[in-house]
């Protein structure tokens, strides 16, 4: 026969693995867990046990039925026969005994399933000659079956005694038929084994005297709880001496039990007996809620009751509660709660499981006092309960939220979260990660583990002390006051930007302060009534975008100058794109309206194509016709600027330390570093210590755009300051600090900037894929420049159609003409790649692109451009490497070293040689070898590089055929832009 695992066997028996394991252990079968194999011997033991149990159950049922039938008969007999005729009664009894023995034999022979319930009951009734005393006496291990047992006994029929629980369960509506269906296959099994054993079994015991006839079933059931409980308390362990007088009765009541079971049982029996004997008689049934003895018809009171030593109410109650509880149930639960639980009528499976649990508990302790057993159980579960209590307390003490850094050791996590390190290790193990207590885990893993304990993990927000934001608290709304808007003027070449800026300044400044000397400090302020506007004095979008590329958001409003006689030109479009990219509103100044060929309506018309629709046409763009030259429309333009700014609700808090941006900076021979600062928030004061970019400074002098000294500069004020220790870069942010703090921060920022510059990676088509993969990019920004408008549009639409895995190409700006510095700045600010079709970058643009590592790709065929972008998105683009010769060396001497090779003694003629360079060996103008350097030494020391004019020793990797006079050309491979 195939060996089964415990769980399979359990399934076969209709029990849980746990139940089977408990049962097997109690039967003395060694079993580890649900995966243990169940051998033949073990199975035989289990089956023998089931058979035994079932036999006992049947016998007990017979006894019960018989006892009740006998009571009825006895009462009839007493009425008709004089009591002094014992012989006649005895003869009758003997007759009945014979009859019943025959019936018992008949039952035992029944091996053909299914046995109908009535047959079984009849059989059971037929063997009811066992005296009640005996019913209370059989071996503890053999489970006293009651009627319900026969009906609802779980697989194996392991139910032993008619306990209160059982009876209540029957009363609670568990029908015999239900159980019958459920367990029929097991019953059949039991019957078969019973049939086998039949030969060994003695006949049923004779009926005792004085038994009352069987009561109606309902009545019996009603009395059963008390009776059963009482029987239980009166049960005597398997001791032949306790078996009542009828000789025939003793034998069937004491079938041989499997030996292992006895071994298990014995210690408990010994414990149990004194306790039970010591128990005082107490009529506690009523108190226990069981039908009271007094309430029952006296005639039907079983004789067994005489032997009953009822438990005190408290004990009995405890027993009841205990027995109802499965092992795992919470002991703290009040008995009332248990009762109500019981009233909920457990499902069929629940009933079976519960009963099985009881059976297994009682398997060795049927005769054992339950009250005695209960403390034992409590003792067993105490550590568990304590552990559970401890766990509950610890859970309460745990924080709801724990703040963690990027990494944390298990031990530290346990400490912070109020957990045991072992719990964390266990959880991680279940998650598939094996860690030790001192091992570090990352934030995500820690968060996952903590979530299992209901603890939220919060990531520590690290303050970058080099970022000014770290020192900036949010302003309270009540501290904010309106500030002047900051305006940038943009437009195509010669459309009149400078003239307009001059016109504004001169109009306003001249009007206010005749004779005032204006200075070009990069920005100026004009006053309109009590309001002010700050203009950035650097026209064009180059400065604007250069600023933005440095992270400075300076401009609130863009004035787009379009010459009415020229209309929309490439730089007009560029300016629109730049402003839009920065999210800054545009006011269109249609300039040169004084010119006869001015066609302002055409300008409006053309601009609609770029989304700038005049208000009178239903759009929201303000158009102001002006003549910069003739100073016309200037006031209207300023009014409109104020209006647009008002809508933006530009506000700042003047009552805090100043923060802003460096607009311009230069080194003045006489004054040292001079910088134009735009105060964006707070008020800058003379004497303030500040950090501008990476420079520390103290405001020594502060002047406005007209050269007037200022003590204080509120928000939106441009000022020229001296006192900086170095020249910051335009676009750098500045902020005021305490002097010491300012010095430290300036130093830290300088350090940080160096690191950033080293690590700076700009978008290029080679890293696009990696950055897409890393989730850093969602789309790829492109700046498109081509020779003719047709090409621009063709490329634009082709690129915009490319879509790889949901990633799109976003054309930030497209235009006709060479790639300019402005394009590179825009690419820098918008993290874009520049694509040139039949155009080239001008010298400035090339330099800036090289310096800022902006990727410029040039194509002559549209198809190539599209293919390359597609390949970049798919991560298939191979970087292009280029050789760069770094030095030339001359071999002057050679040294052959055994087990090392030939070392070339070289003189570096030009450039340098580095350890990672590749060497081309050239002899008489012919290349004879190319390979890596195995070792580069100056005298005896390994060195990284050797400069021109020095000698060195070079050992080539895998090449020893070096001769004096050879020329070594050292080069490195560099990934280059595909320009
Ligand atoms: N008739 C007329 N000419 C103007 C007007 N505004 C500017 N101009 C002329 O247009 C020319 C170019 O003006 P600028 O102010 O230098 O133009 P810009 O946009 O600053 O030019 P760049 O600095 O080269 O980008 C000059 O000769 C101005 O005199 C105007 O309103 N009417």
From TrEMBL:
Pfam families named in the record: EF-G_D2, GTP_EFTU, GTP_EFTU_D2, IF-2, IF2_N
Record region (G-domain): 485-633
SUPFAM superfamilies named in the record: Initiation factor IF2/eIF5b, domain 3 (SSF52156), P-loop containing nucleoside triphosphate hydrolases (SSF52540), Translation proteins (SSF50447)
InterPro entries associated with the record: EF-G-like_DII, EFTu-like_2, IF2_II, IF2_N, P-loop_NTPase, Small_GTP-bd, T_Tr_GTP-bd_dom, TF_IF2_bacterial-like
Any one GO MF annotation of this record: GTP binding
Binding site for GTP: 491-498, 537-541, 591-594
Annotated Basic and acidic residues bias: 92-111, 263-280, 329-341
Keywords from the UniProt entry: Cytoplasm, GTP-binding, Initiation factor, Nucleotide-binding, Protein biosynthesis
Residue ranges occupied by any Tr-type G domain in the UniProt entry: 482-651
Primary localization: cytoplasm
Stretch list, region Disordered: 69-350, 371-399
Keyword GTP-binding appears in the UniProt entry: yes
Basic residues compositional bias, start-end: 186-199, 376-387
Compositional bias annotation for Low complexity: 69-80, 239-256
GO cellular component labels: cytosol
Source domain of life: Bacteria
Annotated compartments: Cytoplasm
Homology family: Belongs to the TRAFAC class translation factor GTPase superfamily. Classic translation factor GTPase family. IF-2 subfamily.
PANTHER family, alphabetized: TR-TYPE G DOMAIN-CONTAINING PROTEIN, TRANSLATION INITIATION FACTOR IF-2-RELATED
Primary role: One of the essential components for the initiation of protein synthesis. Protects formylmethionyl-tRNA from spontaneous hydrolysis and promotes its binding to the 30S ribosomal subunits. Also involved in the hydrolysis of GTP during the formation of the 70S ribosomal complex.
NCBIfam families membership: IF-2, small_GTP
Protein's name according to its UniProt entry: Translation initiation factor IF-2
Gene name per UniProt: infB
């Amino acid at each position: 026969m195939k060996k089964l695992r415990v769980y399979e066997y359990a399934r076969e028996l209709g029990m849980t693995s746990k139940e089977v394991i408990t049962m097997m252990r109690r039967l003395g079968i060694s079993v580890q867990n649900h995966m243990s194999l169940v051998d033949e011997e073990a199975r035989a033991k289990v089956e023998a046990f089931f058979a035994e149990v079932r036999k006992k159950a049947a016998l007990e049922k017979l006894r019960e039925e018989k006892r009740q039938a006998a009571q009825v008969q006895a009462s009839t007999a007493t009425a008709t026969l004089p009591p002094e005729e014992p012989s006649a009664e005895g003869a009758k009894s003997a007759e009945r005994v014979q009859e019943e023995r025959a019936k018992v034999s008949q039952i035992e022979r029944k091996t053909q399933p299914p046995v109908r319930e009535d047959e079984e009951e009849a059989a059971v009734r037929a063997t009811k000659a066992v005296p009640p005393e005996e019913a209370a006496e059989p071996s503890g291990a053999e489970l006293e079956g009651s009627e319900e047992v026969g009906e609802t006994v779980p697989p194996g029929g392991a139910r032993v005694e008619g306990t209160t629980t059982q009876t209540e369960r029957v009363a609670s509506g568990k029908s015999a038929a239900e159980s019958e269906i459920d367990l029929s296959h097991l019953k059949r099994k039991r019957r078969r084994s019973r049939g086998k054993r039949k030969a060994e079994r003695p006949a049923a015991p004779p009926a005792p005297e004085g038994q009352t006839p069987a009561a109606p079933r309902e009545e019996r059931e009603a009395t059963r709880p008390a009776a059963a409980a009482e029987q239980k308390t009166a049960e005597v362990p398997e001791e032949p001496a306790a078996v009542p007088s009828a000789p025939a009765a003793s034998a069937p009541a004491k079938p041989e039990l499997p030996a292992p079971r006895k071994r298990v049982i014995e210690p408990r029996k010994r414990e149990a007996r004194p306790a039970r004997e010591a128990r005082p008689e107490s009529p506690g049934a009523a108190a226990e809620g069981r039908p009271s003895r007094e309430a029952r018809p006296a005639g039907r009171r079983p004789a067994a009751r005489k032997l009953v030593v009822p438990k005190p109410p408290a004990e009995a109650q405890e027993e009841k509660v205990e027995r109802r509880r499965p092992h795992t149930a919470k002991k703290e639960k009040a008995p009332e709660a248990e009762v109500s639980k019981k009233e909920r009528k457990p499902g069929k499976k629940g009933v079976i499981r519960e009963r099985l649990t009881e059976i297994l508990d009682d398997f060795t302790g049927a005769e054992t006092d339950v009250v005695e057993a209960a403390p034992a159980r409590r003792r067993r579960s105490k550590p568990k309960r304590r552990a559970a209590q401890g766990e509950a307390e610890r859970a309460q003490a745990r924080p709801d939220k724990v703040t963690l850094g990027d990494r944390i050791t298990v031990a530290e996590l346990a400490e912070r979260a109020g957990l045991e390190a072992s719990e964390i290790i266990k959880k991680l193990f279940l998650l598939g990660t094996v860690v030790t207590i001192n091992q570090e885990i990352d934030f995500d893993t820690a968060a996952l583990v903590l979530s299992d304990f209901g603890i939220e993990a919060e990531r520590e927000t690290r303050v970058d002390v080099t970022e000014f934001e770290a020192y900036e608290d949010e302003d309270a709304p009540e501290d904010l006051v309106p500030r002047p808007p900051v305006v940038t003027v943009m437009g195509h070449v010669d459309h009149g930007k400078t003239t307009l800026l001059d016109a504004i300044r001169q109009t306003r400044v001249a009007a206010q302060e005749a004779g005032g000397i204006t200075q070009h400090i990069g920005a100026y302020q004009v006053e309109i009534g009590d309001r002010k506007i700050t203009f950035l004095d650097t026209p064009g979008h180059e400065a604007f975008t250069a600023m933005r590329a440095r992270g400075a958001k300076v401009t609130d409003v863009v004035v787009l100058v379009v010459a009415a006689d020229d209309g929309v030109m490439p730089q007009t479009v560029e300016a629109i794109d730049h402003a839009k990219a920065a999210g800054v509103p545009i006011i269109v100044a249609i300039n040169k309206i004084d010119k006869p060929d001015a066609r302002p309506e055409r300008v409006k018309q053309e601009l609609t194509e770029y989304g700038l629709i005049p208000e009178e046409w239903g759009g929201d763009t303000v158009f102001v016709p002006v003549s910069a030259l003739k100073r016309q429309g200037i006031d209207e333009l300023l009014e409109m600027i104020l209006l647009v700014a008002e809508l933006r609700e530009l506000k700042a808090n003047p009552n805090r330390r100043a923060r802003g941006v460096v607009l311009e900076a230069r080194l003045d021979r006489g004054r040292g570093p001079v910088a134009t600062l735009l105060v964006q928030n707070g008020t800058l004061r003379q004497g303030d210590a500040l950090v501008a970019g990476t420079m520390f400074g103290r405001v020594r002098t502060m002047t406005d755009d007209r050269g007037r000294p200022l003590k204080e500069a509120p928000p939106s004020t441009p000022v020229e300051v001296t006192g900086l220790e170095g020249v910051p870069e335009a676009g750098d942010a500045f902020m005021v600090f305490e002097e010491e703090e300012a010095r430290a921060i300036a130093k830290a920022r300088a350090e940080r900037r160096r690191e950033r510059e080293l690590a700076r990676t700009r978008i290029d088509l080679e890293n696009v894929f990696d950055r897409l993969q890393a989730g850093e990019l969602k789309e790829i920004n492109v700046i498109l420049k081509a020779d003719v408008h047709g090409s621009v549009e063709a490329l634009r639409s082709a690129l915009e159609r490319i879509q790889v895995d949901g990633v799109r190409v976003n054309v930030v700006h497209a235009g006709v003409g060479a790639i300019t510095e402005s394009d590179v700045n825009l690419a820098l600010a918008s993290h874009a790649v520049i694509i040139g079709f039949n155009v080239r970058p001008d010298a400035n643009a090339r330099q800036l692109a090289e310096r800022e590592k902006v990727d410029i790709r040039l194509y002559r065929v549209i198809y190539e451009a599209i293919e390359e972008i597609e390949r970049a998105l798919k991560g298939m683009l191979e970087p292009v490497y280029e050789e760069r010769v770094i030095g030339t060396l001359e071999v002057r001497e050679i040294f052959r070293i055994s087990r090392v090779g030939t070392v070339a003694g070289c003189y570096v003629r030009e450039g340098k040689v580095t350890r990672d360079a590749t060497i081309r060996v050239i002899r008489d103008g012919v290349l004879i070898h190319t390979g890596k350097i195995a070792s580069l030494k100056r005298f005896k020391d390994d060195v990284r590089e050797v400069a021109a004019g020095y000698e060195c020793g070079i050992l080539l990797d895998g090449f020893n055929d070096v001769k004096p006079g050879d020329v070594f050309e050292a080069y490195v491979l560099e990934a280059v832009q595909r320009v």
